[in-house]
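Q: Predict the bound structure with zinc ion.
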Amino acid sequence: MNCQLCQTNSNHRLSLLQTFNVIKNQKKQLCQTCELTFTLITVGCLGCGRQQKTNQLCHDCYRWQQTGKKLLNHTALYQYNDAMRQFMQQYKFNGDYDLRVIFNRVLNQQINTLNADIIVPIPVSEHTMKTRGFNQTIGLIEGMAYEHLLKVSAGQKSHQSQFNRKIRMMRKQPFSMMKQISLEGKEILLVDDVYTTGNTLYHAAELLYECGAQNVRSISLSR
Ligand SMILES: [Zn+2]
Ligand SMILES: [Zn+2]
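A: Predicted complex:
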């Protein structure tokens, strides 16, 4: 089979990630070399999931708490290292939708352990939908039951990377509800592809709390 990332043809025995992934579609697999370039987060900050020596709140999460927001308790699976950066580049920005299957199984398994009532993927803007053609987060969790509760408000551009961190932190609420519903008593799990500043997820959580959600947690493939 050909490795989904580097296209190397290999007949190595099943590697760890492949075993995790025991894939519906046999040809979507990573060679051992590619697999080893991804690094699982072993101990993460209780707030944002970043790799740390202990799980105590990192400086950024401490600052989020000081804004009065309820801590997200974010879970992230992999460190955002060079391999993950390249994966995202290829998947998201080059639009290689086939790559969604690589982490699908491991991410869905993790989501299942979190026992949420409702799974809510972070939406992409209409502009992104037109140009990219897909929501990368929904691709990653293919097979999970989720609800489209959020949309990106009109006028919001998706080019976050053009802004520096401070501007991003100050941006106003980028989301609105698809429909007005009561989330009274519900445990919500927000899903995103990458946790960067937390801004996206905290804004999304804020809206869901306004609709009565009892608790909002979040997960991402990478942090
Ligand atoms: Zn490879
Ligand atoms: Zn943190």
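A: The chain has nine helices and six strands.
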